[in-house]
Amino acid sequence: MDGGTVRASLLQIQVDPDESVASRRERVASLVRAQAGADLVVLPELWPVGAFAYERFAAEAEEADPATGPTALAMSAAARDAGVWLHAGSIVEKGTEGGALYNTSLVFSPSGELAATYRKIHRFGFDRGEATMMTAGTTPVTVPHPEAVLGLATCYDLRFPELFRALVDAEPAGAQVLVVPAGWPAKRADHWTLFARTRAVENQCFVLACGTAGSHAGVAQAGRSAVIGPWGEVLAQTDSTEETTVTADLDLSQVAKVRESFPVLKDRVL
User: Fold this and answer.
1) Cα distances (angstroms) measured from residue 88 to each of 32, 108, 139, 179, 230
2) In b/e form, how buried is each residue of 129-140, taking b as 16+ CB within 10 angstroms?
3) I want to staple 229 with a disulfide (CB 3.0 to 4.6 A). Which of 12, 143, 158, 233 is the partner?
4) What pLDDT, in 10s, does the model give residues 112-134?
5) Which SS3 state, helix, strand or coil, does residue 14 take?
6) Rounded to whole angstroms, what are the CA distances from 84 to 121, 245, 261, 264?
7) Is residue 72 a contact partner of residue 114, using CB atoms and an 8 Å limit?
8) How confident is the model at residue 17 (pLDDT cuts 50, 70, 90)?
9) Helices 21-33 and 70-82: crossing angle, nearest 10°?
10) Sheet order of strands, 14-15 included
C-alpha cells in the first residue's frame, strides 16, 4: 500500500441541542450519501449526542452492531448507498460488561460491513465527565483500507503520542493515515491544530482531523477540521466553527517518499 490516491471528505457536523438524535442521524446519513465519489468519509466524535452531554450518555447508549444499533444501522446503509469507506465518528456504546459504556468509533466498508470498531483509550475529564462515565478501551486499532492502512484515534487521544507510535508500528502493516474524529472545545482550538500537525510530522503520516460545529451541552466547539500531509503541510482546512465539509486528495505515495527522504523513524531508540 505505497501508492494510489484517496479522496477524503471530513464532515464537520453541527450538534444542535434542539435537534433530536433521530433527526440528526437521518440528516447526517443524507450528508454521507451526498459524498458518493469520495473514497473515505469521516464524521466527528459523539455527534449523535454531543461529546459533553454527559447526562444523556446512558439514555442514548446503543449497540455497535449495525443489526441492532440505530446509528450503526443508519451509517452502514449510508456507506453502502454512497459506495464509500466511512469512519462514522463515535457513539456511546452500550457494552455487555456490567453496564459499561464506551466511546466507540465505527468504520464501515463500501458494502456497509462493519470493518472495525475502536474504543477510545484516553478519556477526557480529569476524574469527571467522560473519565468517570466511560470505560477505557485497551487496544490500538488499524484498518486496512484498499489504498492505505488507517490508524484510529479519538479526540483526547491526540495528546498522547505513544498511541500513534503504536499505530505506526502495528503489524502486519503500520498506519499511513491517522483518522482523528473529535469534539474539541473552542477554548483549546490552538492545541487541536498544533497536535494534529505534530502527529503528522513525527509519524510521517497523513492526519485527518475531523472536528464538530456548534456546541455540545453548552461547550463551544473548535471546528477547524483539517487534512494534514506527512511533511506537516496543511492540505485542506476550515477556520469555521459552522457545519461544513473539508475535502482533499491524499497521494499515498508521499508517505513512503517522506520516510525515505528523511528517515527519522529509523533513528528511534526507545
Assistant:
1) 9, 7, 19, 11, 23
2) bbeebbbebeeb
3) 233
4) 999 999 999 999 999 888 999 99
5) strand
6) 26, 15, 32, 34
7) yes
8) confident
9) 20
10) 14-15, 213-216, 219-220
- Whole-model pTM over 0.70: yes
Give residue 95's pLDDT band: very low, low, confident or very high (50, 70, 90).
confident
Kindly tell me the sign of the dihedral angle through the C-alpha atoms of 156, 162, 165, 166: negative
CB 11 within 8 A of CB 41: yes
Structural domain boundaries in the chain: 5-267
Which residues fall within 8 angstroms of residue 244, CB to CB, at 6 or more apart?
A: 12, 213, 223, 225, 238
Residue linked to cell 474524529: 181
Collapsing DSSP states into helix, strand and coil, what is residue 103?
Answer: strand
The catalytic residues are: 45, 120, 155
d(CA 194, CA 161): 13
Q: What CATH architecture applies to the domain 5-267? A: 4-Layer Sandwich (3.60)
Instruction: Report yes or no: 43 and 72 within 8 Å, Cβ to Cβ.
Output: no
Which of the four pLDDT bands, split at 50, 70 and 90, describes residue 236? very high
